[in-house]
Structures are given as structure tokens and as C-alpha cells.
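Notes taken during the Thursday session

The instructor put the following on the board and asked us to keep it in front of us for the whole hour. The protein is Iron-sulfur cluster assembly protein. We were told not to look anything up and to reason only from what is written here. First, the residues (100 in total):
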Amino acid sequence: MNMIEKLYEELKYVFEPELAVNIVDLGLVNRIDIADDHSVTVTMNVLKNTQKADMDCLVKGIQYALHSVDGVEAVHVNIVSNPPWTPERMNGEMKKQLIG
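Then, after some discussion, the predicted C-alpha cells were revealed:
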């Protein structure tokens, strides 16, 4: 398993507060970048009505989860609105459970 795969696996322990679904299966993570200084940047969306307190909780959860991976020196989270999140970004099984 390469480093990016390890990071995605750790992010499966971070749950979107309203839906109690992990952010990877929900399709909120757009990308993960690793810099030469071993800092990690997660670029992600949040759901449309996510409150600031929930965003702060997500960021802290991401930082906590990724700092547990050997070699990660720092974690940065960029929350973006473009491209917007849509239900099509969920993995197939999660889409069936939540939408039907």
C-alpha cells in the first residue's frame, strides 16, 4: 500500500457529523497531496449546510487521523466549493444505503 492509499484508509475513520458516514465513502475528499517536507494537504468539499463547528470538527478529525501515519509531519485541510459535491461522488454501496 502506497502512502496516498494509507492516507485515504485513515480518512475512513473521519465521519461527516450530520450523516455519520466517513468522508471518503461520502466522496468529500477531492485529493491528497504530499509535499517534499512530508506535509500533507487534503482538498475536500463539505455538504451544503455544514455548520462552522462541524467543519472545525472535520478538520481536527482529519489532522488527528493523518498525524497517525508514519512520516506525516504536518496536515493542512483546504475546504473548497468548486467542484461542488454531488451525490454521484459517493461510492456505489454508500449511494444505495443513503439514496436507494
